[in-house]
From TrEMBL:
PANTHER family (alphabetical): RHOMBOID-LIKE PROTEIN, RHOMBOID-RELATED
Record localization: Membrane
InterPro entries tied to this protein: Peptidase_S54_rhomboid-like, Peptidase_S54_rhomboid_dom, Rhomboid-like_sf
EC number assigned by the record: 3.4.21.105
Protein name: RHOMBOID-like protein
UniProt record similarity statement: Belongs to the peptidase S54 family.
Location of the Peptidase S54 rhomboid domain: 123-259
Transmembrane segments: 50-69, 132-153, 165-183, 189-210, 217-236, 242-260, 287-309
Length: 336
């Protein structure tokens, strides 16, 4: 997404050592437009989108519940007064603690934020999933949900709720696993891993269904620019780019498996003479890419989970990987 989507984190300006991380800025445009897609290539039904709106409602409801539990006025705060006090117990933490207009880090921890120590040493693996449904603040929530609507509804209309739901959830899980392997001193919340998974799936869908697209170069260039810009935002401090990358890779592989489109001529075969009819629904390369992607996906999840629950620190095996999530400059450092 290119309009604000601050992710994976609460209290970025909190001054605490165990703060939270934030996770990007992204609103890709309306990919899959008829400008790129050959309308004669497929006459399959268009699904009614309901899983994406349901996810949006669930995230909003979870944020409201989070703020109710947070109850800023009910606790003394060294950072100052609660923001928007007229909201009473729904008011936000002081901006010095959480600049995203949201709850405290302790509230997010209580409700299931991703935290390496709790996942590995306290066997709370469920946090790999629950962190996807928490948001660090109102700005964070609005940016993510707008991004989900822009990306998800069009994909769901084309491919259905089952496939898009699977991609969303597994991409969020993949992002959480990679994040936990590299980040140990911060909590992490947000849906950016899942959202980047949808972006990755859009890219692999374009590749595997290459023959049914017109203006292929324009479609590829547009999508790659969107992806590069959004990943580049992840090098800012307090942004969990590991979650972005893990989600993107998971969605990219799942796209080859779940988002196949029939080859040109398949849907019109009944109107053609037998000699001109297409024999196979998909092309050989689509099957090959799907099998390779499935093998890599399963292997990646198995290796990642084994490394995580054995307490392996990814930074010990990749000494330069920390630059993927934060690049220090004269204006900021990446130590916290």
């Amino acid at each position: 997404m290119s309009t604000a989507d601050v992710e994976r984190g609460a209290a970025a300006a909190s001054g605490k050592t165990r703060g939270a991380v934030a996770n990007g800025y992204r609103i890709p445009g309306n990919y899959q437009s008829q400008f790129y897609y050959d309308p004669g290539a497929s006459a399959e039904r268009e699904w009614t989108s309901w899983i994406v709106p349901l996810v949006v409602v669930a995230n909003v409801a979870m944020f409201v519940a989070t703020m109710y539990i947070n109850n800023c006025p009910g606790h003394r705060n060294i950072y100052g007064s609660c923001v928007a006090g007229f909201l009473h117990r729904f008011s936000f933490q002081p901006l010095r603690e959480n600049p995203l207009f949201g709850p405290s880090s302790s509230t997010l921890q209580k409700l299931g934020a991703l935290e390496w120590d709790k996942v590995v040493h306290q066997h709370q693996g469920w946090r790999l999933v629950t962190c996807m449904w928490l948001h660090a603040g109102l700005i964070h929530l609005l940016a993510n949900m707008l991004s989900l609507v822009f990306i998800g509804i069009r994909l769901e209309q084309q491919f259905g709720f089952v496939r898009i739901g699977i991609i969303y959830l597994l991409s969020g899980l993949g992002g959480s696993i990679l994040s936990s392997l590299f980040i140990r001193n911060s909590i992490s919340v947000g849906a950016s891993g899942a959202l980047f998974g949808l972006l990755g799936a859009m890219l692999s869908e374009l590749i595997t269904n290459w023959t049914i697209y017109t203006n292929k170069a324009a479609a590829m260039l547009t999508l790659l620019v969107i992806i590069v810009i959004n990943l580049a935002v992840g090098i800012l401090p307090h942004v969990d780019n590991y979650a972005h990358i893990g989600g993107f890779l998971t969605g990219f592989l799942l796209g080859f498996v779940l988002l196949l489109q029939p080859r040109l001529g398949w849907l019109e075969r009944r109107n053609l003479p037998p000699a001109d009819q297409v024999k196979s629904k998909y092309m050989a390369y689509q099957y090959i890419l799907g099998v390779i992607a499935l093998v890599l996906l399963v292997a990646g999840f198995i290796v990642g989970l084994v490394m995580l629950f054995r307490g392996v620190n990814g930074n010990d095996h990749c000494h330069w990987c920390h630059y993927l999530s934060c690049v220090p400059t004269s204006r900021w450092n990446c130590g916290n």
